[in-house]
Amino acid sequence: MSAGTIPLAHGKPREDWVPYHGTVGMLALIVAEIAIFGIFVVAYIYYIGRSISGPQPRDVLELPIFNTVCLLSSSFTIWLAERSLKKSAMGAFSAWWALTVVLGAIFLGGTALEWKKLIYHDGLTISTNLFGTTFYSLVGLHASHVIIGLTMLSIVLIFALTGKLKSEHSKQLEVLSLYWHFVDAVWVVVFTVVYIVGR
C-alpha cells in the first residue's frame, strides 16, 4: 500500500470507494432537472381541460409511438456502446454510438414534424390557448434537452471516428450516458402526461 492511500476497515483503498466526481456532478444536475420538469408537469396537469377555446388535446394530438420507440431504444444502444468501449472494441462502440445519435435525431425530427402539423395545419401555437402554452413549454423543454444530448453525443462520435477516444475514457462516457438515460426516462413521464392522461 502506498503512503498516500487511505485504507478502509474492509481493506479497500480510498480510490475504490470514492464515487467518480463526474457521476456525482451529473446526479446532482439530474436532481435539479427533475425538479424543473416536475414544475412543468404539474402545471400541465393543472391546466388540462381549462382552455376556453380550441383546439383541445383530443382534437390534434396523435400518439408518437414510433418516435417513442426510437428514443427509448437509444438507451439500449448507448448501453451497448458503453460495454463495447470497456472492451476496447472501438468499431462496435462507434457503430452503437452512431445508432444512438441516429435514433435521437429521428425522435427530434418527429417532434419537429409534429409541431409543424400542429402550428400550420391545426393552428395551435404557444399563444393560442392554455393547452398550447403548456404543451409547447413541456414538450419543448424536453426537446431542448434532447438537442443538448445529441450535441454532446455527436462530439463524442467525432472523437471516436478520429481515433481520439480510448477505453480509459469510459468513466466520462458513463456520465454522459446517465444524462441520456435521464432524457429518455423523462420522455416516459411526458408521453404519459401529455399523450395519454392529457387526451
Walkthrough of the structure:
- There is one protein chain.
- This protein has 199 residues and is mainly alpha-helical.
- 75% of the residues lie in helices and 0% in strands.
- Helix 6 runs antiparallel to helix 7 (170-197).
- The longest helix is centred in the middle third of the chain and has 32 residues, at 90-121.
- The model is unreliable at 1-6 (pLDDT under 50).
Summarize the model shown.
The protein has seven helices and no strands. It has 199 residues and is mainly alpha-helical. 23% of the residues are buried.
What does the secondary structure layout of this molecule look like, with pairings?
Layout: H1 14-17, H2 21-47, H3 57-60, H4 65-86, H5 90-121, H6 130-161, H7 170-197
The helix-and-strand class reads: mainly alpha
For the termini, the CA-CA separation is 62 Å
Q: Please tell me the overall pLDDT.
A: 89
SSE order, one letter for each helix or strand: HHHHHHH
Helicity, in percent?
A: over 70%
Task: Record keyword descriptors for this entry.
about 200 residues; mainly alpha; disordered N terminus; 7 helices; single chain
